[in-house]
Structure formats: structure tokens, C-alpha cells
Write a structure and sequence with these properties.
By secondary structure, the chain is of the alpha+beta class. The protein has 2 helices and 4 strands; from the N terminus they run βαβββα. It has a 4-stranded mixed beta sheet, with helices on one face.
Length: 84
């Protein structure tokens, strides 16, 4: 059985350069490495996602959140994703 691997990115409710770069770079990486990319845009005043830093990225494997990263650095994120 293959792992259900999801990369969840919570993006800012404002124009965020880090979020834009992540959304530009991650789709091809995820497609090549069998990760489902899910974007969740945080809305102003939204209590569903109590995040402090954008983007906030969660690694979920088989319905369990394995790691959460604040901010975006493609190389360190790749290192984390290669563990799964």
C-alpha cells in the first residue's frame, strides 16, 4: 500500500512573496515526488488556522501530521519530505 502523502500550505490573507514563491516552486516538485499539494488560504480573522508565520507548511502522511514548518525554504523542506 502506498503512503497517502500530502503537503499542506497555509498562505497569507495578504500579498506574501514567500507564499507566492512556494506556490510557484512546489507544484512541480510535488508532482515529481508523488505528494498531493493542498493550498489553504487563511482569511483575515479566520480562527481555523492559528498560524503566526506565512507560509505555514504541514507534512501529512497517512492522515497524520508528521511535521510543521513556519516559513519557506525549498532545500530544507525537500530534506524533510525525503524522509517519507
Amino acid at each position: 500500500m502506498t503512503n497517502n502523502k500530502q503537503l499542506i500550505i497555509i498562505t497569507a490573507p495578504f500579498n506574501c512573496g514567500h507564499c507566492a514563491r512556494a506556490l510557484k516552486e512546489l507544484p512541480s516538485y510535488c508532482e515529481e515526488n508523488n505528494w498531493e499539494l493542498i493550498e489553504m488560504k487563511n482569511e483575515r480573522g479566520d480562527e481555523d488556522f492559528p498560524v503566526e508565520t506565512y507560509p505555514t507548511i504541514m507534512i501529512r502522511v497517512d492522515e497524520e501530521v508528521k511535521d510543521t514548518s513556519k516559513g519557506y525554504n525549498l532545500n530544507s523542506l525537500k530534506t524533510k519530505l525525503e524522509k517519507y
